[in-house]
Design brief:
three-stranded antiparallel beta sheet, about 45% helix, single chain, flat
Amino acid sequence: MLTSIKGRLLAAGLALPETWEDEINTWGQQVALFRQYAEGDHRAKLTPEMRDMLRVSGGVLDQFNINYADLVIAKMGDRLTVAGIDADNDAGSKWAAQVLDDNRFDGLQMDVVDAGLRDGITFLMVAPDEDTGAPMLAHELCWDGDTGMIPVYDRMGKRIVAAVKVWYETDDERRVNIYFPDRVEKYAEAEQTLSAGEVVPWVSNGQPIGVPVVPFVNRAKARLSYGISEIASMIPSQDALNRTMVSMVMTAELSAFQIKVAVGFAPPAKVVPGMIIKIAEEGLGNDQKVDMFTLEQAQLVPFISQAQFLIEQIGTITQTPLPSQMGGDSASGESLKQREIGLLGKVKRFQVKAGNAWEDVMKMAATVQNAYSPTARAPQVKRWVCRWEDADIRNDAEVITNAIKMRELVGDKEVLRLVAPVWGYTAQQIDAIMAEKRLAQADQLAALAGNLPGFDNFTAPVQ
């Protein structure tokens, strides 16, 4: 099917390398592997004899592994939360907030972040609602060798000039859409080729709307337009850790249920504590040797040390501070920050690129609404800004204590701003708290003045 897709893209005048199909196939295989590891379905690499000894089938829920791949993804993903997407005017910001709320942004952004970190790249499609024309945001996974989104970049590898979506309409019917800046070509698969397709215009006032697919790329670099998975570098270490785990399990079992060797006689099939074993009822010959012993087993301690070493290497390679590397409960906030410098660096780099992608999504959403909504138009916005929640670990008690210490120097309002991240105060809530405090102070002053001679008609000013 990729051959037919390549032919359609070339017919549209797009430049593709000769090795395009091989590159897409290899990429899809890698993405499929990343997803398997994130789900805990690892390559066991066990022989049939080893499986029999371990009594495992090799299925995802019946194998020995310690899955750190999902932990690496979650550890970084938990620090990546968009607080909002603002415009350069209040009307635009209000419209953006409504669009995000209509598209259940809280769950949508979690899916986008997790998929982008795991696969290296993921996509968001912007399409009009069939009834209202309002922009609808849909998360689209990247190509995994069978289905998903395939981006087509320009010669510089920076700008998407087309996007190919492959999915199953039914269990045995695969379909293909190719999104160009000015049209959508729709095809059905027939024996690994594409049938004659439908062409749907994608224009507004005669002008192309643009490719409605926005990529979210993790750690994009030159000639790596598909991004880099956060777990790509740790898979060899994860495999080694799993093999160490298998060795530990087998060593423990052989230590608990030792292999016994009988020399010169046939022992009974079942041996229980306290029983008497008869070796030779008729007596032993002069040259007959009889012995019974157990095979010596390996020690568990070296395997435990090896496992700890591999876990530390996974944390180092992925710049992810794992639980065993975070110190005790008494570790200070500053100490935790020092351990997370590498992780925070990755988070901030992702925020820059993904923040630009969310801004592109809002720009496309406004274009789509203006093109397809019969009544409501999006406000004019020249610039969008994506705001992220703070990714740093903070000690809330230290934040509050330090803010109170600054009170005499900076005043109550600045103290509230300093503790706002702890309590979730917005600028409006801070202003309301200050206004309520001033009103309370004015009431106290008026009550005090009313008890003094000659101040019966005193009115305290409220600023």
